[in-house]
Amino acid sequence: MYKGGKIIASLIIFAALFTIPFFYNMGKVNAGPDVALDTPAIQQLPASEQQCVESPEFMKENHMQLLNQWREEAVRNGQTVYINSQGKEFDISLQDTCLKCHATESASNPVVLNNPANSTGVSNPALNVSPEFCASCHDYSAVKPLCWTCHFEPKEAVK
Questions:
Q1: Range 37-58 burial, b when 16+ CB lie within 10 A, else e
Q2: pLDDT, tens digit, for every residue of 73-100?
């Protein structure tokens, strides 16, 4: 083989340089964001209304499936009430049910579409730069939720 020694040495150096980040990070675990589930908005609610639509464990694992189910039920079937696993009724509404408790005021104030209940300017947690509710986990997971294409006017359109 012509210049075989140089080729093999180059391949070994390339493989070593390529794998350094993997070996450097081996055994290190990023615990991910620690999101406070007891927000100021939740603390202001009466004790009877401080329950989420499902348990925190269920919501951490299945919130997107639940939101997709809500979308199907509301848009295609016209159903506007969700009955949780404990038999309690909730309105099927991302803005009026979920964001009533889980929105933060530290984000820029986007315009909320067709939502008179939140005309005071509920902030968009997906655009939030602080380590708050939705944005912290979605940024950590590199997930871009499509919820905000319908529920909030895009930031560029706000004048």
A1: eebeebeeeeeeeeebbbeeee
A2: 998 999 999 999 999 999 998 878 887 7
